[in-house]
From TrEMBL:
It comes from the Archaea. The keyword rRNA processing does not apply. One of its GO terms (biological process) is L-proline biosynthetic process. Belongs to the gamma-glutamyl phosphate reductase family. It comes from Halorubrum trapanicum. The lineage of its organism: Archaea, Methanobacteriati, Methanobacteriota, Stenosarchaea group, Halobacteria. The keyword Oxidoreductase applies. GO terms for molecular function: glutamate-5-semialdehyde dehydrogenase activity; NADP binding. It is found in: Cytoplasm. Its EC number is 1.2.1.41. This is Gamma-glutamyl phosphate reductase. NCBIfam families: PRK00197.1, proA. The gene is proA. It catalyses: L-glutamate 5-semialdehyde + phosphate + NADP(+) = L-glutamyl 5-phosphate + NADPH + H(+).
Length: 454
C-alpha cells in the first residue's frame, strides 16, 4: 500500500449506510400513509417555513455573502449566485409551492389498468411509490423543499444532497421540514453534506431505488458511471428558439426576448436563436438592439454578422449552456436546417418554433428530439409548476420512465395486484385447460378484497 493511499472514512460509510437503511424502512411505512396524512404534513411544512422566514433568510444571507466572495475571486458565476439568493417573496413562494403540491390529486392507488383473466380472477395495475429517491442538486435552496414535498406527496423517502454553496440554507430548510413532520416515519427525509457520503450512497443499490442528479454534465456523467442505481436527470439545457419564414415577427421578438432575458440563469432559457434567412434582415436588427439594451452579449455566424454587428460565434458556442446574458445566433436555410442544427447541438431539453404555418410547426415539433417542444411560446414554460405538476424534482431528457419536468407521476411506478378465488394454474394447463377471458374491465378500480365485497 502506498503512503498516499487514503483509507475510507469508515464512520462516514457506516453513517451513510444507516441513513439509507432508515430511509428504506421509512419508505415502506410512508407508502401506507393515507393521502390525508401526507397532505396534512405538507401543509405543516408550509406553515413552519413561513414561521421561520427570518431564520431562513439569515442562513441564506450567509451563503450569499460567501458566494459573492467566491464570485469576486472568479470561482463562482453570477448565474450561480442569482440562483442561490432568497428573499421574503421567494420564501413565501416556497411555502405556496408546498401547498400546491398538497392540493394535487393523489398519485398513489390509482388503477392504471384492470383486466379479467377469468371469472373471479382479476388483474390490476396500480400506482405505487418508487421507494427511496436520492437527489443531488446545486445552488438553488428552494429545490430542496420542492423535492422533499414531491417525495412526500408521492409516498417516497428522499435523501437530499445540496451544493456546498447553499449549505446554511439547506440545513435550516431541512430542519424546518423535519420539525414539521415529526409524526412521519423517522428518516423519511435525510440530508447529507459530504461528497464522500454521495460516493457511498451510490454503492447502496440495495437500499436506494432512484438517483436524480441536477448539475453539470460532468457531474451527471460521474453519477451515471459510478452507480448501478437507475439515474434520471439531465445535464445541460441548451435550448433553441427558431424563427420561421412565416412567423409573426412581433410575437417572435417578444418570445425570443423572454426566453433569454426573463431569467437567463436557468436551464430552460434559450442559448441559441435560429432565424430563417428570408426574415433575418427584417427581424434581427430590432431584436438585436433590444437584447443589447438588456445587456445580452451576442455572437453570430457569418450570415448573422452580415445583418447585425455582433461578435463571431465559434463552433463551441453552439454546444454551450451560457446560463447568463449571452446568446448565439445562426441564420438557417429553412425549418429542416433548423431541425438538423437542434438535433446536432441541442441537449434534448426544450425547443420552440415561431411560425404561423401549422405544417411547418408540425414538422419541427415531430422532427426535433427533445423532452418539450413548443409552438409560439417561450422555452421558459418548461417547468413543473407551469405544467400544473405542483413542482418538479428535476428535468429528465432521457426517454425511459419519465421525460421533461418530473413531478408526482414521475415519482411513481406500479404493482400488479391479482384478486382470485382459489384459482390454480393447473386448471389452465393440459388437454382440459380452461380458457382465459382476458376481458378489459373499464372503469373498475382496485380495492383490497374487491371480489369478497361484491
Amino acid at each position: 500500500m502506498s503512503e498516499s493511499h487514503t483509507e475510507p472514512d469508515t464512520d462516514l460509510e457506516a453513517d451513510t449506510d444507516e441513513l439509507a437503511r432508515r430511509a428504506e424502512r421509512a419508505a415502506l411505512r410512508l407508502a401506507n400513509a393515507d393521502e390525508a396524512t401526507r397532505d396534512e404534513a405538507l401543509r405543516s411544512i408550509a406553515d413552519v417555513i413561513r414561521e421561520r422566514e427570518s431564520e431562513i433568510l439569515e442562513a441564506n444571507a450567509a451563503d450569499v455573502e460567501e458566494a459573492e466572495a467566491m464570485l469576486a475571486d472568479g470561482e463562482y458565476t453570477q448565474a450561480l449566485v442569482d440562483r442561490l439568493k432568497l428573499d421574503a417573496t421567494k420564501v413565501e413562494d416556497i411555502a405556496s409551492m408546498v401547498e400546491s403540491v398538497a392540493a394535487q390529486d393523489d398519485p398513489l392507488g390509482e388503477t392504471l389498468a384492470a383486466r379479467e383473466l377469468d371469472e373471479d380472477l382479476e388483474l390490476y395495475r396500480v400506482a405505487v411509490p418508487i421507494g427511496v429517491v436520492a437527489t443531488v442538486f446545486e445552488s438553488r435552496p428552494d429545490a430542496l423543499v420542492q423535492i422533499a414535498a414531491l417525495a412526500l406527496k408521492s409516498g417516497n423517502a428522499v435523501v437530499l444532497k445540496g451544493g456546498s454553496e447553499a449549505s446554511e440554507s439547506n440545513r435550516i430548510l431541512h430542519e424546518a421540514i423535519i420539525d414539521a413532520t415529526a409524526d412521519l416515519p423517522d428518516g423519511w427525509a435525510a440530508l447529507i453534506e459530504a461528497h464522500e457520503a454521495v460516493d457511498r450512497l451510490l454503492e447502496l443499490d440495495d437500499s436506494v431505488d432512484l438517483v436524480m442528479p441536477r448539475g453539470s454534465s460532468e457531474f451527471v456523467s460521474y453519477i451515471q458511471e459510478n452507480t448501478q442505481i437507475p439515474v434520471l436527470g439531465h445535464t445541460e439545457g441548451i435550448c433553441h428558439v427558431y424563427v420561421d419564414a412565416d412567423a409573426d415577427l412581433s410575437m417572435a421578438e417578444d418570445v425570443a426576448f423572454d426566453a433569454k432575458v426573463q431569467y437567463p440563469a436557468v436551464c430552460n432559457a434559450v442559448e441559441t436563436l435560429l432565424v430563417h434567412e428570408s426574415v433575418a434582415d427584417a427581424f434581427l436588427p430590432g431584436l438585436g438592439a433590444r437584447y443589447e439594451d438588456a445587456g445580452v452579449e451576442l455572437r453570430g455566424d457569418e450570415r448573422t454578422r452580415e445583418v447585425v454587428d455582433v461578435a463571431p460565434a465559434t463552433d463551441d458556442d453552439w454546444d454551450t449552456e451560457y446560463g447568463d446574458l449571452e446568446l448565439s445566433i445562426r441564420v438557417v436555410d429553412d425549418a429542416y436546417d433548423a431541425i438538423e442544427h437542434v438535433n446536432e447541438h441541442g441537449s434534448k431539453h426544450t425547443e420552440s418554433i415561431l411560425t404561423e404555418d401549422p405544417e411547418t410547426a408540425e414538422a419541427f415539433m415531430t422532427g426535433v428530439d427533445a423532452a418539450s417542444v413548443f409552438h409560439n411560446a417561450s422555452t421558459r414554460f418548461a417547468d413543473g409548476y407551469r405544467y400544473g405538476l405542483g413542482a418538479e424534482v428535476g428535468i429528465s431528457t432521457g426517454k425511459i420512465h419519465a421525460r421533461g419536468p418530473v413531478g408526482l407521476e414521475g415519482l411513481t411506478t406500479y404493482k400488479y395486484y391479482l384478486e382470485g378465488d382459489g384459482h390454480l394454474v393447473a386448471s389452465y394447463s393440459g388437454e382440459d385447460a380452461l380458457p382465459f377471458t382476458h376481458r378489459e374491465l373499464d372503469g373498475v378500480e382496485w380495492t383490497p378484497g374487491r371480489l369478497l365485497t361484491e
